[in-house]
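Subject: Predicted fold for KIF-binding protein, 550 residues

User T.R. writes:
Posting the sequence so we have a shared reference for the thread.
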Amino acid sequence: MEFFYSSFQETLEQVDELMGRSADQAKPYEHKYTARELLQNLLNHERIQAQDEPARAAQALIEYILGVNHFETEEITESERHYSKCLNSLLSLPLFYQAKYLNTFQDVLNALGILQCNRGENQKGLEYFYKSQALYEAIKTIQTQDFSHTFHDYLTGSDNFRFIIQGGVNRRKAEQNYTLTLFYMAQAYSKTGEKHKSASFCAETMKRQMISGDYDMKDWAINCINMAEYYVENNYIAQGIYMLECGLSIITGKRRKLRSTLNMQIGRAYKSILELAVETTSQNKEIPKELNEQVLFLPMLTAEWKNVEFPTEIEAAKEMFKVAHGHFKIALEYFIIDGYVTEHIEMKKDISGLYKTLCYFEKSDPRVLAMLNRRLELIENFTKEINKQSYSALWQHLMNEVASIYMDIYEVKVIAAEEQKKPKKRLEKHAAANSYALTCIEKQTEMMEFVLKFDMNDDSAKDIMQSSLNLMFGIARLYSKLEDPDKVVRVGYMEKSYRWYEKIRKYLQDAKNGKYADKISDLNEQLRVCEEMVALMPIRISQVNADSYD
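User M.O. replies:
I've generated the structure tokens; pasting them so everyone works from the same file.
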């Protein structure tokens, strides 16, 4: 055994130092290649080649380090080959000998699982992670000799040093390895689309990190944001808000951007409650049972769990509005327009969305109109100020929202017009409302012209054609709805509607005979509707011309 207490031990300590040494950017793997040569020479030593039990154990340890070495130099196939050799060597040992290297079993099972997941073989990766999980459960129950067999722990002075070949179980490392196993399982399930399992493993990972104190503050807070997003999307909104509050509670130092991001997400979580309340109330659905369900609680943190109330009337909605708006206001102090264009505008859109939800609960039309105008104040100027080429998607979203606000104002004013008993007064009110509809049409036309300039290819054709058609149909329908006390003006609107339907018909016919006809499946149905309107509009125009107003 003298070889294992001298040359073997000394070489692995030297390898560890080399693999951790900083290298010149021009030769990033220089020291790792040197370490690899030492490992290969050690592997070929006659004592290792003896293949008795100590030799096979030593071989397994060397193969594992070679696997790490090749992984870090991005030679993945070779890395997997060495990891597999490590596992096979360990499994060839008697059980009492295997028990000395349980930490290495964990390491190699996790490593093989990661490699499988990285190449998209997530189910195969999960098989390794479940084996590692089962091994951890066994480590908790079996009687093993407790000491570190890793020279790194000796170098850092964090454990009692023993010679590597002697093995033993490092309980602290076993806990760390198991936390990594759970983290990898969360990632794997995320890739397979099993988000609930992914969230469950991620929550357990974060809990273990917090209990052990073994975590990076920024990474842990960012994981809180990611977890909260999942919980809110699935109606566990109180849990989502709690995760964000937990993230805030651990931040020390300035970290303004991170704090502001968490406040922004808290604002969005409360906004989602208002949106869910509108959806639930308007569609006569039941309140989601998950709303205040507790999935994860961390008593070691100062964050408080807050059950959320589900607003059903305007006063409760206003209170939630204030909470959400307060968090957005804090976040906006950091995410100013000069430097954070997207974040700033998205939050202004969020605040506009808050007013939109209040409009649903508000019964007073004057107050609804005031909130609609406030929404315009928040976002309309951005449609003129930002570069729509550089921020194409954001500009289109803003334009869509601005157009819809003008349409909402028009609808409120039309309702007021319909309440007028005298036909002439009613038409005058309609005419007053029309300016908002015409502005909506202007916005839709500008969007359509912008979209039609996009380069069309196999990937973009469907979206471009469908967006253009949606805008065209919207313009044509809106012109046909406009009322006016002046019959000439009214007929003018209808004629514009007719011309738009003709334009749509030609667009559809060209698309049907064009290169990308297969990208929209319902061209025939849309063409049929358009043909009907082209035939109907002249009849309606004739009827209006034949009528006289009172």
